[in-house]
Amino acid sequence: MAAPLDVNIEHLNGSWVLNKALSSESDPFLKLQKVSWLIRKAFSFATIYIQILQYPIKEKESSEPSTKIDFIQTASAGLAGSKEERILDWAKYDHTDYFFGTVKGQSQFIYGAPAKDGTMRPEFELQTDTTSAEIKQFLRGEIELDWSKSPGFLVEAQDEPVEGETRGCWVHTFERNEKLGWTAEQVSTSDSGNISFFNWKLMFIG
């Protein structure tokens, strides 16, 4: 089923089902995050349901406007539900659940600028501690995991375009599990009008 055309990265409200046929295999990256074999096995058989609530809020300290996204996940195969809350102000927040443990994460909206090849690519500061230029190229949608050239993301128009020549809107997230010793960095956009609703590039560093 195609996502409605009015669904974009700034308006993700709705109930969704994870389409595993259009997703990469989950077990390798869940293993990197040290998720137990039993939970990974149950996840591979489960149907995953996600309710997304996205709404405006004010930052606690500055009262500046911000956005909050709640991901409420339920599943079959006996997996317990979970809830993840992201506030897009780039502040660090702690989140704990049975699946990933205790994670400190931060999220923000980011925007795009024209690349040398004329495509629009998200602009952001890489948080992953690495000297590999390919990691940022992958997260920007320039290359695939096999290093082949990537067509990149579907570029969306944002509600309130930022100044200059930038356009398009993405969510940039960086998370760290200090106890288990992994970090994850993600750049994502919705895919309005397509069979999937959420495209993302995700890189884990153990």
UniProtKB/TrEMBL annotation:
At the top level, the lineage of the source is Eukaryota
Identify this protein by name: Uncharacterized protein
